[in-house]
Amino acid sequence: MQDPKVIVALDFNERARCLALVEQLTPTACRLKIGKEMFTRFGPEFVRELQSRGFEIFLDLKFHDIPNTVAKAVQAAADLGVWMVNVHASGGRRMMQAAKDALSDYPNPPKLIAVTVLTSMQPDELQEVGYSTELAQQVERLAKLTEQCGLDGVVCSAQEAAQLREYLPESFLLVTPGIRLSHAPEDDQRRIMTPTDALKAGSSYLVVGRPITQSAEPLVVLESINASLAKMA
Ligand SMILES: O=C(O)c1cc(=O)[nH]c(=O)n1[C@@H]1O[C@H](COP(=O)(O)O)[C@@H](O)[C@H]1O
Asked: Architecture of 6-232 per CATH?
């Protein structure tokens, strides 16, 4: 597969257990995501270890800080040679532009994307933290702002993908976590969708964690997702 659609979210507290899973996967079948848990425990060295096995890495640290701090953090991610890195769109225009500008001198910069509204959030929780906008409207607002700032795409739930695709070009990446196979538990996710529905709705990449990592047969699950997506091509 030239451009695998699945990004496997590696959220483990043990390096060895994580590597035992990674050994079953191949860079042609998926990319890998390292997030806050593993990066805080095992640091950049672990990212390099996975890269040395040929995997492209989405460094999911969701930077959200003052523009200068986020710009420097994004440069640190670029120096690490990751494929993708993210910030929170709610950090605002100046923060996102600073992050984008910080990558301008890199010949092959990571894809820079922004989180709109976390896929674990549901409408009442958004209201509770002070947003009076409808959830889908808030996603749309932040996606438009992200595009205006020149970033490569957004993280959103696949439930919003079709709506966003109405005015965002194919080249603008919609990276969608909250992917669940039918009948699987939603866990702490709230806005979920199956892999094929997500792709149909316009997702560019699917972030899949527990449905693969907690499965007794992770490779079988990954291969069956890839096969179902391939059928749609
Ligand atoms: O940026 C992300 O990757 C992300 C954004 C979001 O809105 N929701 C979300 O679940 N994620 C990440 O995607 C992964 C989803 O994992 P599972 O719920 O196990 O499939 C986790 O590593 C989350 O940190």
From this structure: Alpha-Beta Barrel (3.20)
User: Residue 169: phi, psi to the nearest 5?
Assistant: -65, 160
Please state, in angstroms and rounded to a whole number, the distance separating the CA atoms of residues 157 and 189: 10
Instruction: Tell me the average pLDDT across 90-96.
Output: 98
What digits encode the pLDDT tens for the residues 29-43? 999 999 999 999 999
Q: Which residues line ligand 1 (CB under 6 A)?
A: 9, 11, 35, 60, 62, 86, 115, 118-119, 155, 177-178, 187, 189, 207-210
- Put simply, whether the predicted model's pTM sits higher than 0.90 gets the answer yes
Report the atom number in ligand 1 closest to the C-alpha of 211. 20
* Ligand 1 atom, smallest distance to 189 CA: 18
- What distance in Å separates the CA atoms of residue 116 and residue 141, rounded to the nearest whole number? 9
ipTM comes to 0.98
pLDDT at 147: 98
- Where are the chain's structural domains? 6-232
CA distance 7 to 176: 10
Distance 67 CA to ligand 1 centre (A): 24
